[in-house]
Write a structure and sequence with these properties.
Layout lengths: L2 H4 L5 E4 L6 E4 L9 H14 L1 E4 L6 H9 L21 E4 L27 E10 L7 E5 H6 L3 H7 L3 E4 L1 H7 L6 H6 L3 E4 L1 E3 L6 E3 L5 E4 L4 H15 L5 E4 L6 E5 L3 E5 L11 E8 L6
Parallel strand pairs: 2-3
Antiparallel strand pairs: 1-2, 3-13, 4-15, 5-13, 5-15, 6-12, 6-14, 7-8, 7-11, 9-10
The structure holds N-oxalylglycine and manganese (II) ion.
Length: about 290
């Protein structure tokens, strides 16, 4: 920890589960963080992977300003629902343009954000504005823990293996054909399957719904291996389920987690609306 961080009072942190996730108490995210606090929040982010800041009331600009304190904002190039007034804030919603619940919930499969990019997302920040009376959770799988729980021989086997992430395949799997422009914009991208976290050095399995196949292995075998690893990684002991409260700001580390939305509410009746910002990560060399 830097001297600056050492001189600030420690953050008040309440862990939300034994494995990961913590509430950070007492910060008003509308205010800029002093550098020591910023560093302490980032350290907590590395330590807990998911941070929850309760009772926040941020405008889109304030959410962008909070996000930018931790890195470079990712623009949302594709299917930008409701972003006309603010290109940097993506609206996660089950409402149609007239504000009527559609019954549809996005992001229901295990994934890590923008894993098909050369520099996959470092963090995603969601601010809960409108929630159903119950449910509409987001579930996280800890890919450090999942990797570390593999037998030593399997870890060795996975060392140096490249996993190809493909936006085209990922959309195909949910019955959507992407445009030629989207194909050019997001060509398949290879990352280490056991990917070292750039800040902690710990390896985490890097896969999810955008993961297509493994390099140097027949397509079907690679797919089967990815699905087997996903089944392993999403066992209950590796999970944290976030029960949202209105005003929550959740910030999670895409480099060591998978996540998905749980449609455990009546999405044809109840609105669920969150504002989303995303921070760009880094490329990983083999
Ligand atoms: C996302 C996402 C899950 C949710 O915003 O990247 O996957 O619960 N959201 O809405
Ligand atoms: Mn997501």
């Amino acid at each position: 920890m830097s001297d600056a961080a050492a001189s600030v009072p420690a953050l008040v942190i309440n862990p939300l589960s034994e494995l990961m996730a913590a509430e950070v108490v007492g910060l008003d995210l509308r205010q800029p963080l002093d550098l020591g606090t910023r560093d302490a929040v980032y350290q907590a982010f590395l330590d807990y992977q998911v941070l929850a800041f309760r009772d926040q009331d941020l405008t889109k600009d304030e959410q962008v300003a909070f996000t930018e304190q931790f890195g470079t904002l990712e623009k949302h190039a594709q299917r930008n629902q409701g972003t006309a007034d603010h290109p940097l804030v993506h609206i996660v919603t089950n409402l149609d343009a007239d504000g009527v619940p559609t019954g549809k919930v996005g992001s229901m499969r295990w994934h890590t954000d923008k894993s098909f990019r050369p520099k996959p997302s470092m963090a995603t920040i969601l601010h809960a504005l409108i929630l159903p009376p119950e449910g509409g959770d987001t579930v996280f799988a800890n890919m450090y823990a999942a990797y570390e729980a593999l037998p030593a021989t399997e870890k060795e086997e996975l060392d140096g293996v490249g996993v190809v992430h493909s936006w085209e395949l990922s959309r195909d799997n949910i019955g959507r054909t992407i445009s030629e422009w989207e194909k050019r914009d997001a060509p398949p991208m290879t990352h280490p399957l056991a990917r070292p976290h750039p800040d902690t050095g710990r390896k985490a399995l890097f896969m999810g719904m955008h993961a297509s196949h493994l390099e140097g292995m027949p397509m079907e075998d690679g797919r089967a291996r990815i699905l087997k690893l996903e089944a392993h990684s999403t066992q209950p002991q590796f999970l944290y389920r976030h029960h949202w409260k209105t005003g929550d700001v959740l910030m999670w580390d895409n480099r060591c987690l998978l996540h998905h939305a749980d449609a455990n509410f009546d999405a044809a009746v109840h609105p669920r609306v969150l504002h989303r910002t995303c921070l760009r990560g880094t490329a990983t060399n083999f």
